[in-house]
Amino acid sequence: MAAAAMPPLGDLSGRRIVVTGANSGIGFETARALAAHGAEVVMACRSTSRAQAAAARLRGSPGAVVVRQLDLADLSSIRRFAEEAAGDGALSGVVANAAVMACPLSFTADGLELQMGTNHFGHALLVSLLLPLLDRAGRVVIVSSIAARGGRLDARMRAVDLTAPSPYRAQTVYSNSKQANLLFAKELQRRLRAAGSGTAVIAVHPGVSATELFPRQMRDNHMGFLVPVLKPVMGLILQSAAAGALPSLRALSDPALGGGEFLGPRRLGQTRGRPELLGPYRQGADDEAAARLFELTEEVLGTGLLAP
Ligand SMILES: NC(=O)c1ccc[n+]([C@@H]2O[C@H](COP(=O)([O-])OP(=O)(O)OC[C@H]3O[C@@H](n4cnc5c(N)ncnc54)[C@H](OP(=O)(O)O)[C@@H]3O)[C@@H](O)[C@H]2O)c1
Any idea which fold 16-300 has? Predict the structure, then answer.
């Protein structure tokens, strides 16, 4: 695996790219860099007011910034978003970035466990609905995590293991959801190729970056009083959110990538550094598990994920 330097983003004018969770952390820095290079960024966010506030910070960028409401924990919101996006015209890319991490047991509007519902099922439906909008060089970027290495899904998984895992162990379910991101990316790429599509699906991990992810986890678990201490410490020891956005940005723009790759930092246990081509994690590499996850995802969502 070559540790090639990241190619420059270049001029992205004329390219429209959807970024989920673009109001915060790595998603915001992804949107910022894309807009700075002239792309039109569709900020797909669950809170319109938080998204508008984030968009205001990008005012003056060469690219356009559009805010659209998207709640990945509500399948009807995802369908509405996709309908609106279809009215905007062709897309060059989709970055499946948003996530929740290790929250107490709760469920989406459709009764799916929240972490798997948001991080995997919501993005699977979103990507499926946006595939027909992608232009010929279109790219799907799936943001996973080094936490995927703790995932326990295998080819024997059942739908209930995804929709209502029991016993509920919050960190394991987060790991499973990030493993599901990798398995989904793998099988989606295989099926798209088999169907003759040129769409490239690229999985990334952002290392460990100072964002709202860890403070949110603390607040969700009644440890919000530690956040004022946590944030400055994070700023000292973790890489920046902007560094965490580099794998997504390379996945969108590196002409050497053809789909099926896995990118992320390698240094210090893959926690920081420039985005490099990495070997797949064992947890994301099993063909049978990937096919099983894809089938179960279609079953749970009640729809085929690849347009005929
Ligand atoms: N930070 C790290 O060290 C790290 C490490 C490994 C992987 N990652 C991955 O990197 C990605 C970005 O995370 P981050 O660190 O930037 O975290 P973050 O700052 O907490 O941002 C998460 C984003 O996801 C959005 N989101 C959550 N639930 C949503 C829903 N139901 N519908 C739409 N959007 C929703 C949040 O919206 P609100 O602001 O409205 O809540 C927020 O915009 C995630 O996929 C995460 O798993 C991060």
Answer: Rossmann fold (3.40.50)
Q: Average the pLDDT over 115-121 and give the result.
A: 98
Extents of the domains making up the chain: 16-300
What DSSP designation does 268 have? H
What is the 46 CA–ligand 1 centroid distance (Å)? 11
What would the pLDDT profile of 212-238 be if each residue is shown by its tens digit? 898 999 898 889 998 898 888 888 889
Output the pLDDT for position 92. Answer: 97
pLDDT of residue 52: 98
Residue 174 annotated in active site: yes
- For residue 220, the CA-to-ligand 1 centroid distance in Å is 14
Which entry of 174, 184, 214, 262 is annotated as an active-site residue? 174
Mean model confidence pLDDT for the chain = 95
Candidates 190, 240, 20, 218; CA nearest to 118 is 20
